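I am still getting used to backbone structure tokens and would like to learn alongside you. Would you supply a protein for us yourself, any chain you care to pick? Start from the sequence, derive the backbone structure tokens from it, and show both lines together. Go ahead whenever you are ready, and we will take it from there.
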Amino acid sequence: MRLYWSPSSNLSSAEIIELWENTLASPPSVVACDTETISLNNKSVVGVGIAINSMQGFYVTPDDPDFLRYLTLLQDPRTQVIYHNAPFDLRVLRPHKVQYSNIDDTANLCRLANQPADLETASWFVGLPTEQAKKFMERFKAKTMQDAPPADVGKKCCQDAIATYRLYFYLQKECPEIWSYYRKFDRALIPRLEDINAVGINLHQETLDRLDDFYTGELSFYRTVANNMGFNPGSSQQVGYVLAKRGNYLPLNKSKMHLATDDDTLQKFNDPLIPLILNYRHCQVMKRTFVDKLKMSSRAYTTLAPDAITGRLTSKDMNLQNIPNLSDVGKAVRMRMAFWPDEPETIWTSWDASQIELRVLAHLSDDPTMKEIFASTGGDIHGNTEHALWGTRGPNRLRAKTFNFAMVYGADVQTVADRIHERRISTVSHLMRSWMKAYPVAASWIQTQVEAAQYTGAVESMFGRKMVLPVDRGEKHMNNCAINFPIQCSAGEIWKLVMLELAGLNLIPQTRNQVHDELNFSGAVLPPKDLEDLSPIHVPIEVKQGSNWGMLSDVATPRYQ
């Protein structure tokens, strides 16, 4: 099937055929593309829409004789291709080998401009409102795009592509201040992320089988115990009822309709039944979210994209950033042990940006105590905090680490108490005052950030990314974001610079995953020392290696290439 669509011009059949042939013979220098898939879960392509200008577009389905010829518009690096949410469309089009060296993403541009990043909202700015896929299918009572009328699907796809085309040039004109940053970071990163997304990670099926057996047995055990006590551990309402019946005074959830039974709430109670409930949930998540899905493939794939409000990379489709580094099976096997290097490599390497967010806080606040600690050889900010707050050296370091990050993210006294498992609020208040005395300049910067947020409603990262604060989510959340956004964004920018540098070092082909401040590689990959100084902040890279992602140990000498 082939369909031509324009919001205003009407062409005859002969004119459409002529336009089609001329487009393929002399491709435009700039096009915009949108894909339609069966569903969000099933990314098999239903059709592809390409806007050849701000008024005209074609939609073609895979059964059309000219479909592959049509895709040559997306395969020539001389053609600039614009997508809205490029990582999604690139994954859909991956089997067709489209080029991604010369592409732009209007969703990223919208985020940088602090405008709505969903096309349905952003398209109003360019006079061509589009429709969300879910609403489109509801309008036709369709479960998937294949169930909707093909002509209407084609019109929608063309409309989305033309709106994307217009949005790109609208943002060029109306938001000139974002382009320098965009080209340095997000645009430059698009092809690098697609390289990583496309290759995936080698999976070890024997480990997955062991994990499957373990979680199946654990779930059966917890379910049997709970059923014998008269409740289903997978039902939030039944969990709330049985815990309340046992004398636990649970608060209401946000809807005020039921008792709150989320993990954070339950962890505040001492009922011996709660570990059973939390363990059941943990095993259920690990089995359903990871083991069951990973066993279906020899490789694990994710979609990394810089689409957090801070520009931090997120992991979609399968969130490989959420795989915990915890032992479950006899304290010997963990989920990360299922991720292996590709043969003939026998080594898995992980790089970790050492205490990067606290280093950013030291830089942004110019706190002399923090900067002195980080400048000294072997300086340990968590150890210093432990000694300043508890007077010890070692036994309370983990609590000090938790405390440091809680202060960085603007946690209130109750949240800090929950994180460090301290019941006495007065004690936590005293510890927080001690932290402020230990790092007075950083504490002053935190307070200034909160006060300034009340007037400006926005913050800025180290490299100039401006972020509007979520004022609609309450003052407390906005204040936390005023502290967290510039720190998290700046840390992400430093790590993006590292990832971009990997391309020049020809290390992207070995890169397998990114988990916030961690990069993972197939092979024995050591970082060049100058990677630690790509920004004004010196960030040491800690290197660990092992036979797989879950079996890592610190690398001795040589530390660098």
